[in-house]
Write a structure and sequence with these properties.
The complex is a heterodimer of chains A (249) and B (485). Chain A is α/β, with parallel strands linked by helices and 249 residues long. Chain A has helices at 40-48, 72-77, 95-109, 117-131, 136-139, 148-162, 178-190, 206-210, 230-239, 242-248, and strands spanning 2-11, 14-24, 29-33, 53-62, 65-66, 80-83, 90-94, 141-142, 166-170, 197-202, 215-220, 223-228. Chain A has ten helices and twelve strands. In chain A, helix 7 links the parallel strand 9 and strand 10 (197-202). Chain A is globular and about 55 Å long. In chain B, the strands form three sheets. In chain B, strands 5, 6, 8, 10, 11, 13, 15, 16, 18, 20 and 22 form an eleven-stranded mixed β-sheet that branches. In chain B, strands 4-3-7-9-12-14-17-19-21-23 form a ten-stranded mixed β-sheet. The chains are: A alpha/beta (249), B alpha/beta (485). The A-B interface holds A 48-51, 71-73, 75-77, 81-82, 84, 87-94, 96-98, 100-102, 104-106, 109, 114, 117, 141, 158, 162 and B 4-9, 431-434, 436-445, 447, 451-452, 454-459.
Chain lengths: 249, 485
Amino acid sequence: MLEIKNLHAAVDGTEILKGLSLEINAGETHAIMGPNGSGKSTLSYVLAGRDGYKVTKGEILYKGQNLLDLSPEERAGNGVFLAFQYPVEIPGVANTIFLKEALNAVRRHRGEEELDAMAVLKVVREKTKELGISEDMLKRAVNVGFSGGEKKRNEVLQMAVLNPSLAILDETDSGLDIDALKIVADGVNALRAPDRATLVITHYQRLLDHIVPDKVHVLAKGRIQRSGGKALALELEKNGYAEFAEAAA
Amino acid sequence: MAATPETAQQVQEYADDGYKYGFVTDIETESAPKGLNEDIIRFISAKKKEPEWMLESRLKAYRHWLTMPEPEWQKPDFPAINYQDSYYYSAPKSMADKPKSLDEVDPELLATYEKLGIPLQEQERLAGVAVDAVFDSVSVATTFKAKLEEVGVIFCPISEAIERCPDLVQKYLGSVVPYTDNKHACLNAAVFTDGSFVFIPKGVRCPMELSTYFRINAENTGQFERTLIIADEGSYVSYLEGCTAPMRDEHQLHAAVVELITLDDAEIKYSTVQNWYPGDEEGRGGIYNFVTKRGACRGRNSKISWTQVETGSAITWKYPSCILQGENSVGEFYSIAITNNRQQADTGTKMIHLGKNTSSRIISKGISAGRSDQTYRGLVRMGPKANGARNYTQCDSLLIGDTCGAHTVPYIESKNKGAVVEHEATTSKISEDQLFYLRQRGIDEEAAVALVVNGFCRDVLQQLPMEFAVEAQKLVGISLEGSVG
């Protein structure tokens, strides 16, 4: 599904990623853990195609295609979804309108017929029900006045509606209490499927108690320092990241 | 409900059209000779078969106009207007003998309105909307006249009203905007050609929306329309005006005057979707839109509400205002102004509180893009007798890119200690975060901008009659084309 080879990326002329390699197959869930400033968010923005995140070396293949050739909206259309660490507020735009615009944009890209307002509402209502999200959230302006937990749930709802092939969750656990964390994790787990790959980016182990990964990678100093199974996360929880910070220095 | 949905999709559909109203109708016209003098005014008055008092009133205005200075306090900058370089009267030849019904109207004219999306033919008319179609200097057709007359509503071209109900016209014309008001209004009083007249009798709720569609077609021709709406005690009317013009390289002058009068317990809701040709990317051509709009809430508990969506014109100079005389009367001003490329807009409102417990509400949303420049200019005046008067003003500016300008100039004058005036203003930019977020969800950049802007304008879009809310949303997207990337 996703193959990252020797990726180097810079922001404002400073190299943040320094030779990162990673491979994720369909049906798998991988976790990337690492200390602050290790390049976790940079990786998610590079995958999504944000302006200002410059790839200086290496390549990213997604479904066998060069991902770096595509604009952010084309990547989204091809099934790349990023759940934001800090979801953005769009005042005056109701969630349903936003979901309709997004879903139809993605459908157009896939060569599928657009859905009218009623049909979209039906899809969205179904998903809110499955995810245990209150319908009240649909009428409100996108993320405006949402609590931290509501914002993250809204990200999961968008993911469910857009049905991506590659879901990247950037620090989805940040700012959540344990109950909100569980609801979000349940939502993500419900979306796990054989034809979907998930990349969970997190600082803390606790999210991985709820979203159990197939593989854990430690990112420090712009590279994957170590890979392993779920046990690696627990070890990190115990020992911290100090070892990797030194190893990479 | 005024819809905010479907915007991006519609923007998509219209994206390639640019200014799609820019076509010219090829039609034989009859014009007054170029330039402006007393003979031209006599020519116009004779063409309209006006009574002597009307001609006298025009000449008086003209003589005063000659002595008036050009207004200079506005922000937009433009070369002095050569008034002798324009035509002040132009009408399709086929309109010389007034057609008695739509069947007699030149098919070319009907086709023009159809192309503009305003079908005049009976079977295709917008249900529930009566239309007065003004083409250059004449009214081409007014639909649903007979049906409205059944309930006593008079809706006709103002030239016809001068003939049919001279008493009402003489009593009210110029009573809200006197010819001495400002140079542009004075010019209008001298040379106005057509526009709509509306009278809603006591206790009547007008059974349908009334609308006037203004179209400038002829070259080098100014349009000077005059609209007068009178809502008698306890009556209600919702009125909408729309405007378009062909793409031409020279500037054309549009100096209109609109007067509204509400008596006790009456309400007028006046909505404008202004989409005059804005000029090209370099600022060549486009309409100079110098308009004086004012309403007088003369009666107790009366209400006047202005809603405007201003996307067109090279220069907009316009301050729809309310004079709140009657006790408990209410004035509202909801505005969206969008400028792109080289457009300049200086727009806002005046709320003049004279009566007790009068209240006003101003919501202004300005969006500037390209190299355009925009000013909100608003006056709130609390008179000495306006005990218990209240005003709330909210004025938001949104900037797209870093070569445009937005200015807010509020004037507050209070001669009454008990009056309450609130003013809130914000200026923001469409953030890169918002655009990236929307693009990550598959929405392309132009559609993303349209979505954010429509959200920004939502409070005002909601005030529009539903039939026009969708059109206004499309316009928002089209007007901002090419403003990103």
